[in-house]
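Question:
Write out your own:
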Amino acid sequence: MYCSAADERVYCTDCHRATEVVLDHGTGDTICTDCGMVLDEHYIDEGQEWRVFGDDSAGGEDRDPCRVGSAGDPFLRGDGLLSTCIVHSAKSKSRSRSGSDPAAALHLPRMMLDVGGPAPDTALVDAFRGIADMADRLGLVATIRDSAKQTFKRLEEAKGCPRGARSRDAVYAACLYVACRKEGMPRTYKELASVTAQGAAARKDIGKMTTHIKKLLGEEDGQVLDIGVVRATSYLRRFCSILGLGNQQMLAAQEAVSRLEMELDVRRNPESIAAAIIYMVVQRAGARRSVKDVSAATGVAEGTIKEAHKDLVPHTELLFAERPPRGSSARPAPAAGH
């Protein structure tokens, strides 16, 4: 593997001048780019070692940037997976009595080794992996993933985590739902259900588990579970981006939602309002987007969008009326002679 060192010039005894060189990290040679002469051998690379020895027998190039082991998890005791335990087993005891155990013959004491601290709970490790996998498939940022892990750990410590494979995904999804709300980037139950093994059928279980988490952890140890208030504006930008709307249409939708929240009282879910407003913006712009397209992008059912749209149509003028530009005066011009 060669690395260019064009910013450095080294004097070449063959070219009799300072030339550009390259570094061969495989052999540690410094090579002149003009004549190919090796100017220096056994160059020491003080950078990180990314070499992998798994494909040496196949003759492949060692370019895979893998390291040994995984990064530590601050939510696990003893860095999670660094613990090593050596204990007696019933089979080894029977072998030691019969004299067939080499360790017994050598009189080697058996002991328990704990390299990384106390061994973590297997359920906690599996849960963190499941939460991380769901977060990756939903495209959630690391702060949401870590917040969901913290919520699950608090739930586990409060003995409020139900057992069973069926409810496991619902618990992970509910922790992610709470974390998204806390970070101000909410996701709908339908979006979270899409990454569970049950699919859309898990929506009801996720909702029940979310209610359970809020009830159990809401006032635990004086720490209020602040998940904020979800509004239509919380979903709007993401829905518009998924649908591929332009910046002008997105601003019109945001303005309409802002007016609706300030001046109207529409008793519908925030995601339904956001989807209906987007559908109205699309219709006014003449874009080739059907209610089916809006439903696919927002995850709101087509019938729900049509019902919310029917409620908002009488207020179209209020929602989309053009406001006078800032700084302009609405007062009439003075009459002549004054």
Notes: The chain has 13 helices and four strands. Residues 83 and 119 are 6 Å apart (CA to CA). Residues 105-119, 220-224 have pLDDT under 50 and may be disordered. The radius of gyration is 32 Å.
